[in-house]
Amino acid sequence: MSLECYPADFSTRYEITHAISIQMSMYYNDTGKVQLVVAANDYNINALKKNNILYDTERGFTYILVNVKCDTTQNRITANGFTTEYFLNKRAVSVKRQVTTIETGVYGIINDNLRSLPKISTATVKGLPETWQPNDPDTEENESEVYGGQVLDVITPILEYGSLGRRMNWDPSTLSWEFEVFKGDDLTTGIHAIVFAEEQGTCSDLVINEDVSTFKNFAYVPYKNGNVEYVATVGTATAGERFEIWLNSSISKEDGETLQKCKERAISYGQLELGKRISRQSFNVVVDASELGVLYNIGDIVACSSNRFGVQFNARITGVTYTMDINGEKTSIQLGDPILTALGELKLNGNS
Known about the structure:
Elements: E1 3-6, E2 14-16, E3 21-27, E4 33-39, H1 42-47, E5 53-56, E6 62-71, E7 76-83, E8 97-98, H2 102-113, E9 120-122, E10 145-146, H3 151-161, E11 165-171, E12 176-182, E13 195-197, E14 204-211, E15 218-225, E16 228-234, E17 244-246, H4 259-274, E18 280-286, E19 301-306, E20 311-325, E21 328-339, E22 347-348
Parallel strand pairs: 9-12, 13-19, 15-17
Antiparallel strand pairs: 1-2, 1-5, 3-4, 3-20, 4-7, 5-6, 6-7, 8-10, 11-12, 14-18, 15-16, 18-21, 19-20, 20-21, 20-22
Helix pairs in contact: 2-3
């Protein structure tokens, strides 16, 4: 393991070569984290300060340190941080922008609102075709104007809508980042197909995680016409299958707008918010770390199966976690929601 650490002004460079433990994560479309524990010597005390940049030279990950704790009893320093796209939340979306094509729209949101945020640029447009339509396609209007909120918080659900990922590419020669929107490859067929099969020994420690802690499928959205308040409802679930949420909003009928159009805006807002509160299912497997970045990468779609658990599915690699401690080193990957193919090859719990 080799880590470099830079102060916020990049005036010098530190090298962290001996860590007591470290855990780093990186995600397809989420903010990764780092926790680094080292001895509290003078060198490490100077190197690990809040707002410093931590760079994993082997994996290319970069993190901003947001919390540093020095424990004089155990003579240890514990530093915690986030992947560096976290910088984008230093800026609010104060410039209105219509978003249709997601790749160019996300770059536009970032470039409109950087306001001299240093050392960050956006990648060259690749021409990814995914589009954003945040409202019900049966309504007449597409409320695709983005305005308000923090930059990273705003672009995350837009990328999720198009199944696109994001990454901050670090250039050690210029000490700067390039924010890139990307889409992983489908590695489920062909000569380069990747199958994580427990019985074949290509994966171990399969963990199936189902999370409904934030799940909601029915929303109430208030909207106003002057001093008169109405409430729009979004969702069709009933009885015990309904999980309700009340969404406070400032939606009001505008001059020249019909009350129906105002209601449709409230419904669109409710649909977008419900989309953030889905029932999440993920799968973790431990794999050969040497294959990551060679045979597959974050964002790629792979096949996974386990006869013991009775699961067979295709899924996107949505995250990678690297852990090093006294027990050794381990790299585990997180697989996202199973992808139902046109042939219906998803099999869970023995059902086809």
